[in-house]
Write a structure and sequence with these properties.
It contains nine helices and seven strands, in the order E-H-E-H-H-H-E-H-E-H-E-E-H-H-E-H. By secondary structure, it is an alpha/beta fold. The chain has one domain: Rossmann fold (3-Layer(aba) Sandwich). A hairpin with a 6-residue loop joins strand 5 and strand 6. It starts with a strand and ends with a helix. The mean pLDDT is 89.
Length: 210
């Protein structure tokens, strides 16, 4: 089974939800660049404050900031990992290829309107980073994480205006990665508009086969 994975797709496609599910089932580390950057912002680090300027506008965080965080992380996960939210540009993909061999890239495909509705209704646990959706995947108790009971929060960048800008940015700068990984023979596409269980099954098939 392939254990060094990249989850690729537009905002709201369900990468984070699936990364948690697959990582737990197969005992893989989940490397979510978004969470790492938000942690740096929360701590008020220099890199975090720099990243915040870009994230608040819906722009991509510069490569030098993201790469510095990621390189150390991947070399401390010898039992396998899922990278969620990286790479986002061809330059980042080239950097990743030089740092470590990726075995499979899962591309999450879904229409824009579904992505927008998912994001504006998304709520996140500040403790375990579990992701919920008020429409598709609500917590058992409104506003509370099923796993640890923490109060869920709505990210400041999860509003419609910023969301549409993030999706636009994805198609301009990140979508070329689909062709990049396809030609390397690493890409597997899943229909991310389906329910969580169906998407999980499709991912499992992709990582267990050649």
């Amino acid at each position: 089974m392939k254990t060094r994975l990249v989850f690729l797709g537009p905002p709201g496609a369900g990468k984070g939800t699936q990364a948690i599910v697959i990582a737990k089932k197969y005992h893989l580390a989940r490397i979510a660049t978004g969470d790492i950057l938000r942690d740096a912002i929360g701590r008020g680090s220099a890199l975090g404050l720099k990243a915040k300027e870009f994230m608040d506008r819906g722009d991509l965080v510069p490569d030098d900031v993201v790469n510095a965080i990621l390189k150390d992380k991947i070399h401390n996960t010898p039992d396998g990992f899922i990278i969620d939210g990286y790479p986002r540009t061809i330059e980042q993909a080239n950097f990743l290829q030089s740092a470590i061999e990726i075995q499979r890239v899962i591309y999450f495909d879904a229409p824009e309107e579904i992505l927008v509705q998912r994001i504006v209704n998304r709520r996140v646990c500040p403790v375990c980073n579990a992701v919920y959706n008020k429409l598709e995947n609500p917590p058992a108790v409104e506003g509370k994480c099923d796993l640890d009971g923490a109060e869920l929060f709505h990210r400041t960048d999860d509003i419609e205006e910023v969301t549409r800008e993030r999706i636009k940015t994805f198609w301009q700068k990140t979508a070329p990665l689909v062709d990049y990984y396809f030609h390397k023979g690493l890409l597997a596409k899943v229909s991310a508009e389906r329910n969580v269980g169906e998407v999980t099954a499709e991912i499992e098939f992709a990582i267990q086969t050649e």
